[in-house]
Write a structure and sequence with these properties.
alpha/beta; six-stranded mixed β-sheet; 13 helices; 28% helix; globular
Length: 436
């Protein structure tokens, strides 16, 4: 059964730019930069030093607690372990590897032909050792999320909605490697033992839906649910409501309402880790937008500079306004194209000046369109006012922390207020005050 969530918008999806063809391997770079923080949580401690020779899949860094390891995406020589620019902003300690183009394997993971000889704990350990995180961009460690859901989850959801405009990485994955996603779901079904397993996809992915319907014949325990296209359907709490009708309360987590949600690419990574013994060293990235000459989906090694990924898509046009990591609604603008592709990079979006909607003199006209559009039932106009005034008490009272930064409010705002930017700043201030 399908349900509706509150708010949301219907932006032009622009997914036709990249189509739904088979993703092509991107050229392998001469040098990769592997950040030691590609997940929510503590950064990894480096396990290698300059002068070391590493193999493809070798662990480069690891840590305790909320942390997952990172691995070499090429074999070669470590030339530096130093802070480098990160697509999420700022500088992050990173391992720089000069590629020897041999791809000499060095993964400590072992492939398993089936799950029968593995305990739940062993499966979770493999997922953790493979460095798997939320590949849709959230980057929460998958092993930690899985353990938290054990014994508490009755519904497992594969998020294949990919509701952000322009991005088609998951669509390409479903059309090309659907069995990886479904078998990856089977792995977590064995661990979580849910009563219901659902692969949710929006109805603008007709080719993927057709392919999945055929695949479902060999995966009878998984339900395919085709949802009406609506942004931000792929947001975790909104997807749970759309699939189950349950609402995650403010401050609560999906497991608190018996659900676990993982991105389609995360399930594919789980499949590769368990069945093929492959850690996260590459991913599908959509390189698109009116500011790039040949939009396409590429299979990219982790650590590849954005500049080389863009070059593989024909290079920039002469009318580029912004380059984003991610989509136009939630993506992060980049000041340096030397930043590397990381595990959570699902798209490199190159926008032309025609997409510039920034206003020279932003002004709230109190139309309340942002209130109607907010899928979290917040009051963006008041959140903006109190953030500008530095009133953290009011921001807490109005539940600013529940903002998912989806950008619906900014999309509908006729005054072109920088709402998401303001809310991010307000959330940082609230978290800093709470920590003090």
């Amino acid at each position: 059964m399908k349900h509706l969530f509150f708010g949301g918008v219907h932006p032009a999806d622009r997914k036709e730019l990249t189509g739904r063809g088979i993703p092509a391997p991107a050229p392998i770079p001469a040098q990769v930069v592997i950040p030691l923080r590609q997940h929510i949580g503590a950064p990894c401690t480096p396990l290698v030093k300059p002068g070391d020779t590493v193999g493809l899949g070798q662990k480069l860094g690891d840590g305790e607690g909320l942390c997952v390891p990172v691995h070499a995406s090429v074999s070669g020589l470590v030339t530096a372990v130093e802070p480098r620019p990160h697509p999420g902003g700022g500088q992050v300690l990173s391992v720089v590897i000069e590629n020897d183009y041999q791809d000499t394997p060095a993964s400590a993971l072992e492939p398993h032909l089936d799950l029968s000889g593995l305990t739940k704990e062993e499966i979770v350990s493999i997922i953790g050792e493979a460095g798997i995180v939320g590949m849709g961009g959230a980057t929460f460690p998958t092993d930690v999320k899985t353990v938290a859901g054990m014994g508490r989850v009755d519904t497992l959801i594969a998020n294949a909605c990919e509701c952000e405009p322009y991005i088609t990485a998951d669509d390409a994955l479903l059309c090309t490697y659907p069995e990886q996603v479904l078998r990856g779901m089977g792995v977590l079904m064995a661990v979580l033992e849910p009563k219901r397993a659902v692969l949710a996809v929006e109805d603008n992915k007709s080719e993927a839906v057709g392919i999945l319907k055929k695949q479902m014949e060999t995966f009878p325990g998984i339900e395919l649910l085709v949802l009406p296209t609506r942004y931000p359907q792929g947001a975790e709490k909104q997807l749970i409501q759309a699939v189950t009708g349950r609402q995650v309360p403010p401050g609560a987590l999906p497991k608190d309402v018996g659900c676990a949600v993982f991105n389609a690419a995360t399930f594919a990574s789980i499949y590769k880790a368990v069945y093929e013994g492959e850690p996260v060293t590459r991913r599908i990235v959509t390189v698109t937008g009116e500011g790039v000459r040949e939009p396409k989906n590429l299979i990219v090694r982790i650590g590849t500079p954005f500049s080389e990924v863009i070059a593989a898509a024909g290079g920039l046009t002469g009318d580029v306004w912004k380059v984003l990591s991610g989509g136009p609604m939630m993506g992060v603008a980049q000041a340096d194209l030397a930043v590397p592709v990381v595990k959570g990079t699902n798209a490199v979006l190159c926008l032309s000046r025609a997409q510039d909607r920034e206003g020279a003199h932003p002004q709230c006209i109190r139309c309340a369109k942002c209130v109607t559009a907010c899928p979290m039932s917040l009051q963006p106009l008041y959140l903006y006012r109190f953030e500008q005034a530095g009133d953290l008490t009011a921001l807490k009272r109005l539940n600013l922390i529940d903002c998912i930064e989806c950008g619906c409010c900014a999309y509908v705002c006729p005054g072109r207020l920088p709402l998401v930017e303001s809310f991010r700043a307000g959330k940082r201030a609230v978290k800093e005050e709470n920590a003090s």
